[in-house]
Structures are given as C-alpha cells and as structure tokens.
Amino acid sequence: LHHKVLKLNGPYLTRCMTSLHPVPEYEHVWPSLEKEALVVAVVGVGNVSQLCLDLLISSLKTSFVGYLESPCIPAVVGAAPYTTDPSKPFLTGSLELYHIPDRKTFLLQTRAPNFAGTRKKFAVELQNFVMQNKFSKVVLLSSSFAMARKDAQLLGLPVQFALTGLPDSVEQLLRSLGLAEIPKEEGPSGDTSGPRLNIPGSGCAEALFSSLSTGGAPTALLNFFTSEGDNRGDAVYMANFLDSWLHLLTPQAVSAGMNPSKWKTPDCWALLYGADPDPTLY
C-alpha cells in the first residue's frame, strides 16, 4: 500500500490505505475533506451507479480533485471521460475523486471492480480513508439483480436503502420518497456471520456497508434492482432520488422518478453502446 502526505489548506492529509495523486496540469488548492459527504459508485449489475455519477459530474459544478489508488482495484487508463470540459481529468483512471464545493460533497467515480477475493480488504481501506478524513457521511450507490427480488419487493420501487449511524429524519425522508429498506436474510448453511443484505450482483457493496457500519461512519446504501442492458434510464432514476435527498442539483426538493431534462448527457455516453447501425442495411 502507498503512503503519501499531501498539504490541503494548511493541515496535512495522510493516506494510509490509498494514495491520492494530484493532477499537475490543474493548479488548484486541494479542498479539505473533513465534514463533507462522500458519494461512492460501487460497481454492480448494469453499472447503474457509475452512469449515475457520470450524470452528476457532467451536470453539477464539479471540480476534479485527483486519483485514488488501491491494490484491490485494477489499474485502468483511458481517454478523457468528459472531453469538452477543461476542468475535468485528461485521462480516465480506476478511481476518480470530484468535488462539489457549494454542496459540500465529494464524488468517487469507480471505473473497475475490485480483484476477486479483495472485497473485505478494500472495504477496510475505504473505511480507514473515510475515518481518517472525517467525512460527515457516506452514500454508497449500487445495483443488483432484479431477478433476486422477493415477492414483496416486486410491489415497490426498484430503489431500496440501508442506513447506519444516520438520524431518523433521513429514514423518514427516504420513506416519504417511496423507498423501502433492503431486507436482511440469513446466509447459507454454516455461515455464522449473521443476517446480510440480499443484493446479489452488487459487487462489494455489502462488504463496504458492513465495514463502514462497524467503523461507526454514518452511511447510506442506495441499491437499484436492475438487469444488464441499456441502463441510462436507471441512472437518471437514481440521480433524481439522490437529488431529492441531498439537493445536489436543485436547492428545493423535487419529485423523484424519470426526469431526464435537468441532467446533462455525459460526453462519455456518446458511444456507450457503439455507433448507430448503417441505415443502408435496412
């Protein structure tokens, strides 16, 4: 693991589990991470959380902070994800950190799933990163297989939540938006870890939530039940729910649901599903 000390507005920020690399082309003072919210995209079915953060990063007044590096995440390098915005990174990385200053919120965009067998290790890394930098709360965005829903879950919205360490008012607000809590189930025979969230296909989401809960970090998990396919509509749906809670785009609460007009289509969606077919074929 890398250890790096970076100067942020006077105090020094120590990275004990991940190293944060500033981009030399962008001369800006790194903001303090203390007492701000952290929204994390967790790789899952349909990449709904990553698409959702694409919408937030493209539509909000975000500034690129830097890259996070973890031995649990494969190294990924690609073309600029938001090519028309000079304030965004010139390369795609595995873990990209963005800041919304006027909303006191950081966004952690994840471009690759963790290596097999490293879920718990990465969960501990994120927990340490959150606790060392004193984030006010963490919001995990994930997606899981719609086919795994129970009968009772089929009657509700495709987004459900799990909370730990947050005030009752947060649960009341989420329920007022029509969301239900993710049910917990007993593990397979011989599993002594106790009840767990039933969200298969959500990658390390359950491990992250459990680790942050153990560490005492106020955490919310928003999970979208979906299937592989064109998941852009799912991303808009989740972004609207997140905005209704955190008011990232609008200062007033807005009705959740399909309302794509307020979101800017990200540059990286241009060829999300390849080029259009040649019309002469038809």
Automatic annotation (TrEMBL):
<dbReference type="InterPro" id="IPR016562">
    <property type="entry name" value="Proteasome_assmbl_chp_2_euk"/>
</dbReference>
<comment type="similarity">
    <text>Belongs to the PSMG2 family.</text>
</comment>
<dbReference type="GO" id="GO:0000502">
    <property type="term" value="C:proteasome complex"/>
</dbReference>
<dbReference type="GO" id="GO:0043248">
    <property type="term" value="P:proteasome assembly"/>
</dbReference>
<keyword id="KW-0143">Chaperone</keyword>
<dbReference type="GO" id="GO:0005634">
    <property type="term" value="C:nucleus"/>
</dbReference>
<dbReference type="Pfam" id="PF09754">
    <property type="entry name" value="PAC2"/>
</dbReference>
<dbReference type="GO" id="GO:0005829">
    <property type="term" value="C:cytosol"/>
</dbReference>
<dbReference type="InterPro" id="IPR019151">
    <property type="entry name" value="Proteasome_assmbl_chaperone_2"/>
</dbReference>
<protein>
    <recommendedName>
        <fullName>Proteasome assembly chaperone 2</fullName>
    </recommendedName>
</protein>
<keyword id="KW-0647">Proteasome</keyword>
<dbReference type="InterPro" id="IPR038389">
    <property type="entry name" value="PSMG2_sf"/>
</dbReference>
